[in-house]
Design brief:
Layout: H1 2-18, H2 23-68, H3 76-89, H4 93-98, E1 104-108, E2 113-122, E3 134-144, E4 148-154, E5 163-165, E6 170-174, E7 177-180, E8 189-191, E9 196-198, E10 201-204, E11 208-209, E12 213-214, E13 218-219, H5 228-237, E14 247-248, E15 253-254, E16 260-263, E17 266-269, E18 272-281, E19 286-290, E20 294-304, E21 308-312, E22 319-321, E23 326-330, E24 340-344, E25 354-358, E26 362-379, E27 382-383, E28 390-399, E29 404-408, E30 423-424, E31 428-430
Parallel strand pairs: 4-7, 4-28, 5-8, 5-28, 6-9, 6-29, 7-10, 8-11, 9-12, 10-13, 14-17, 15-18, 16-18, 17-19, 18-20, 19-21, 20-22, 20-23, 21-24, 22-25, 23-26, 24-26, 25-26, 26-28, 27-29
Antiparallel strand pairs: 1-2, 2-3, 3-31, 4-30
Helix pairs in contact: 2-3
Length: 432
């Protein structure tokens, strides 16, 4: 009996040893955990790749948008805001929820570059088989290639005929661009008659009317006033508001045409009227005309090298040059008001436009800057033909008569002391 039991147990043990039917189940059970880990890694890699691609696309779009606006004004926060708003607008809510910090935006004005870095820690899709989180980071940068400097700008944001070319007058922007900020839908830029406008480009925020433009105008952004910050700083530095009148209500200058009268630097109140003769300004001088016009008439000449001529005061304060007058001046190349040949404070708005009438020799090297004042250029003859660097920035600009107005800004204009000017037709592209 005992022997039979022993034999039965031995048979059972041997049978269990030789039975292969449970092997697959045992092996599969042992391999289940590594297979699950591998599957989670694959899913997490695919998910991370999708998140990173979305982050990269959003960052690329953001820096391109900010760089497009980079040349328009000098506000770093503006560019950062554009980059951030564009980034988030191109991101899904799901990916945005994964962000552990705001993107870092850097605006480098000297190199005209906007860059963005984005970091995110994502949670693994299938839990913490391998890691608690996955760190991702993308970087993008865009830059603006140099364009053509703008040598004529009309700053008024809404005016009809903000730049107005009439009659047989010709505007020639030699190697530079013309820009109009007005958003008037039909006539922000206007040309009528046989007069022509020729420039490297015509850029207008609103609409235009006229057929004698070469090339045809195109639509573009508003450009910020490129001189405003420098002008305000120089005005405060020279403490012009507190300067007393050095000369008041001078008698008319009326000598023979070859006699030279020297005007000393200072503040001239009540206007200066030059009827005949040569008036020389002291080289490097600062001249302030307050509460009255600087009026240069037909047989008079105004001359000065590296001088700053600024206007301030009531509605009688303006520049007037009559037909046949000669204006031969150049702006300072260093110091306060550098690059500004004639400039008017924004609060000083004359009842009549600043007026330049051709027919004499008009050679102004530098910028005519009338940010809140209209400028009218009219008459016969050529204006600006012999100037090396000549630009006009005004609230509105009217070009009439049958003469020719030539403005020019060379690519190397900064070496002549002119302040930085905005550029037209820049090309924006990704760096990385």
């Amino acid at each position: 009996m005992q022997r039979t039991r022993i034999m039965t147990w031995k048979c059972l043990l041997n049978h269990f040893r030789d039975d292969k039917r449970g092997t697959v189940a045992v092996v599969f059970g042992a391999a289940a955990i590594p297979l699950a880990i591998a599957a989670s890694i694959a899913v997490d890699m695919a998910n991370s790749s999708e998140i990173k691609a979305q982050l990269q696309a959003a960052a690329d779009t953001a820096v391109l948008a900010a760089a497009t606006r980079l040349g328009v004004n000098a506000s770093e926060s503006d560019k950062e805001a554009i980059a951030l708003s564009t980034f988030y607008a191109n991101l899904s809510d799901t990916v945005e929820s994964e962000l552990n910090s705001s993107p870092v935006v850097d605006v480098d004005f000297p190199s005209q570059t906007v860059s963005m870095t984005v970091s995110v820690n994502t949670n693994p899709v299938l839990g913490a088989f391998v890691t608690d989180e996955i760190a991702l980071s993308v970087t993008s940068a865009a830059t603006v290639s140099p364009g053509t400097p703008i040598c004529m700008m009309a700053l008024n944001p809404t005016a009809e005929k903000s730049i107005n070319i009439q009659g047989t007058a010709d505007l020639i922007a030699d190697g530079c661009a013309v820009h109009v900020n007005s958003n008037d839908a039909d006539k922000a830029l206007y040309q009528t008659g046989t007069g022509t406008g020729t420039a490297d480009s015509f850029c207008v925020k609103g609409g235009y009317m006229g057929t004698n433009f070469e090339p045809d105008p195109y639509h573009c952004y508003v450009e910020a006033d490129p001189i405003a910050e420098q002008f305000a700083s120089d005005w405060a530095y020279e403490n012009i508001d507190s300067k007393p009148c050095n000369y008041s209500n001078l008698p008319q200058i009326n000598t023979d045409e070859t006699t030279v009268t020297v005007l000393q630097p200072g503040v001239y109140c009540g206007g200066v009227n030059i009827k005949k003769g040569i008036v020389e300004l002291v080289d490097g001088g600062l001249y302030v005309f307050r509460d009255g016009p600087l009026d240069v008439q037909a047989h008079a000449t105004l001359k000065g090298e590296e001088v700053a001529i600024v206007f301030d005061g009531d509605d009688t304060t303006r520049l007037v040059t009559q037909a046949g007058a000669d204006i031969i001046t150049s702006a300072r190349t260093t110091g306060s008001f550098r690059g500004l040949a004639f400039a008017q404070h924004p609060s000083s708005v004359p009842a009549s436009e600043n007026l330049v009438i051709g027919g004499g020799e008009i050679e102004i090297n530098g910028i005519m800057y009338f940010p809140k004042q209209p400028l009218k250029v009219t008459g016969n003859g050529d204006i600006g033909t012999n100037a090396a660097q000549f630009a006009i920035i005004a609230d509105t600009i009217s070009i009439e008569g049958n003469g020719q107005l030539r403005i020019k800004i060379g690519q190397n204009y900064a070496t002549t002391g002119l302040p930085d000017l905005p550029q037209a037709q820049e090309v924006v592209y990704l760096l990385e």
